[in-house]
Amino acid sequence: MVVVRRGELTDAQWELIQPLLPPQRPRTGRPALDHRLIVNAILWLTRTGAPWRDLPERYGSWKTVYSRFRRWSEQGIWEQLFAALLEEAQRRGDLDWDLTTSTARSSGPTSTPLGPEKGGSRHGQPRAIRPQPRRLLHQAAHAGRR
Q: pTM of this prediction?
């Protein structure tokens, strides 16, 4: 059994994403650092917003984690993973696609519509709310802990 720290993948969450990742053992060279450790390192980075070089030593070398992150990004692994997580969440009924938008306006002489550079749209219409796939992995780490 793996000791799960706050914000890291539980065994059930790991079992969900493990088959979606490339094979653990490389064809040549040194054995690769465990994928679960790499994913937990990336979750730590996304949760804290820390720079790569500030990654705690328990996750291994920041260069190794960055290299795997970049390689998986280039290979489209993250997109495939997020799409599968989104599909699984939708299958379980965990997603609510009934979205509502509202526009808050000030009621003073200084109120002006927000332009695109301040979060508004070019034509004064509210922006569409979209799911944020890059947060799905982070949210998967917190599922069931509420």
A: 0.63
